[in-house]
Amino acid sequence: METLRPVLGIGALLLLAWILSENRRDVRLRPVLGGLALQVALAVLLLFLPPVQQAMLAVNDAAEALNRATNAGTRFVFGYLAGPPLPFAEAQPGGAFILAFQALPLVLTISALATLLFHWGVLQAVMRGFAWLLRRTLGVGGALALGAAVHVFVGMVEAPLLVRPWLARMARGELFALMTCGMAGIAGTVMIIYGTVLGAVIPNALGNVISAAIISTPAAIAVAALMIPFDAGREDRAELVLPDPPHDSLDAILKGIAAGIPILVSILAVLLVTVALVTLANMVLGLLPAIDGAPVTLQRILALPFRPVVWLIGIPWAESGVAAQLMATKTVLNEFVAYLGLAGLPPDALSPQSRLILTYAMCGFANFGSVGIMVGGISAMVPERREEVVRLGLRSLVSGTIATCTSGALAGLLAG
């Protein structure tokens, strides 16, 4: 029964997506069944094929080297603020950790490296290969396939920007599927950060984060096709066109650094303001009578519906309260804060398998702040569809969460 529960959980999540569908009778089976089959196939490939596992471990080692190299740069610029050795005694363990100086500068290094790989054509080849796989298995159009593939590496606004010429003529369901991929994915600029944060509690942390981002993409299309059906037989072609491409490798590095600065500032600003606003809301909710000896908070409220969900995807009921709180934190704040919470839990709070399930289930941008960012970004690209994009925003949060939860269930099932 414990083995069957994640299978039933995936079925229940897909049933929920179908219940929330705009047109239950018009669901096309090919993108749904194809998406689920591809999700399972990629998960098996990434988690069990020895050469792929070795490649993931190599990527994890490379990420650790990149993090050490970035730390050398931040220590040179910021001194002890970037980490040990400290010129004073640490009053409490971990008290000297400063997020802005010791974790987030990695965004700049990754942005520069990603732009350089774009200039060399490495990432384009990977994206085109994944887009081809999506077209062949799910039957989706070229613009959606390319946009979904790009979402594995870039954010929820940058990916639509790269397929901007096709946004205006996308079907409603295709546009929703593209938005769902944004909510179910994370950007390459933060993958290594999350792998670094989780490195102490999850074996091959970065490999699992990358695997989660990859397998959640076909799942996102499958869930979106259930909620807003679309014709999966389109044969439109789309090519990746980079705005203002760099002239040479040095120009690529400089442009990557320049592009990473607003991303870094945005992450800092969103974290600061989101935590402040949620804290303010929790102060207001704290005026209500306490429940079970604890004040009412947004996280506690949202954790209530998440508790049966995390149980369904394979987390024991005794651990479901902690897991639901993390999922609620991820939705109310963001996955970064939730991953920090997961990394900071006592060793006996969650089993290793539960930590792995949550790593996959929380690996996505599906939170309230991201909805605002994505809706604002896509609306600016296609102002004639602004009202439609706004209406699809919150629905994409739900669909993106369902997609990543199915990935969590699948990871737990295969790892178990």
UniProtKB/TrEMBL annotation:
The keyword Transport does not apply. The chain crosses the membrane at residues 31-49, 96-120, 140-163, 175-197, 209-230, 263-288, 357-382, 394-415. GO terms for molecular function: nucleoside transmembrane transporter activity; symporter activity. It is found in: Cell membrane. Its main location: membrane. It comes from the Bacteria. Residues 101-200 form the Nucleoside transporter/FeoB GTPase Gate domain. It is a multi-pass membrane protein. Residues 209-412 form the Concentrative nucleoside transporter C-terminal domain. This is Nucleoside:proton symporter. It comes from Rhodovastum atsumiense.
